Amino acid sequence: MGIFIEDLLNFGNLIDTEVEIPLKPEDFKRVFPDLDFEFTEGILKIKGKKKVLFFNKGFEFRGREEGNKVYNERTDELKDFGILVKIVSSDGIDVLEKDSHFKKEGVYLKMSILDVLKATETYQKIPKQFRDKLELVKYRIKEGALSIFITVVK
C-alpha cells in the first residue's frame, strides 16, 4: 500500500494513518553494497568483512527488535529517521560505526533507514508534497524483511 496523489484531495485522512512499507535485503544492498542484511523473526543480522592486519575477516552483527525504538530528526537542512535495535552480538560494530548511517548508543545500534526507503519503488510513488512530512512510527523485523510504519505529519 502506498500514498497516492488522490490522497492530496483528502489530506486530513492521511494524518495519523500508519502505512506499512516492507524493506527487503535487496533494498539495503543498494545503499550498503558491502554489507548483507538478513531478517528473521525479531532478529537483524548484518554481515560484512573487516580488515585484520593483511586479511579480511568476516563479521556478523546481531540486533534484536525493539519495535517502538525509533527516531525522527529534523533540522533546517536535514531530515532523517531510523531505528534502534538492541545489540545482541557487537561483532563488527566498529566497522558499522565508520558509516554515518550507524551509531552505537549505549546498548542500542542507531541505524538511519531514510536512504534505504528513498531507494525503493514505493518511495517514488509518494507525492513530493508529502516526502518531507513523513515520520517513522514503529518497525517490525519479520521473516525476510524489515517493515517500517510511517505516517504523515502536519
Shape assignment = globular
Q: Overall pLDDT, averaged?
A: 87
| Straight-line distance between termini | 21 Å
Our count of helices gives 6
Radius of gyration: 16 Å
Query: Number of DSSP strands?
Result: 10
Low-pLDDT residue spans? none
Give me the secondary-structure category. Answer: alpha+beta
Percent range of helical residues: 10-25%
Q: List the helices and strands in order.
A: HEHEEEEEHEEHHHEE
Main sheet summary: 7 strands, antiparallel
Strand content: over 45%
Could you please describe the fold and organization of this structure?
This protein is α+β, with helices and mostly antiparallel strands. The protein has six helices and ten strands. It is globular and about 50 Å long. The model has no long low-confidence stretch (mean pLDDT 87).
Main attributes?
single chain; 154 residues; alpha+beta; three-stranded antiparallel beta sheet
Gist of the model:
With 154 residues, the chain is α+β, with helices and mostly antiparallel strands. It has helices at 11-14, 25-31, 93-96, 114-118, 121-125, 128-131, and strands at 19-23, 36-40, 43-52, 55-64, 70-74, 79-89, 102-105, 108-112, 134-142, 145-152.
Write the layout of secondary structure elements.
Elements (H helix, E strand, L loop, with lengths): L10 H4 L4 E5 L1 H7 L4 E5 L2 E10 L2 E10 L5 E5 L4 E11 L3 H4 L5 E4 L2 E5 L1 H5 L2 H5 L2 H4 L2 E9 L2 E8 L2
Antiparallel strand pairs: 1-10, 2-3, 3-4, 4-6, 5-6, 6-8, 7-8, 9-10
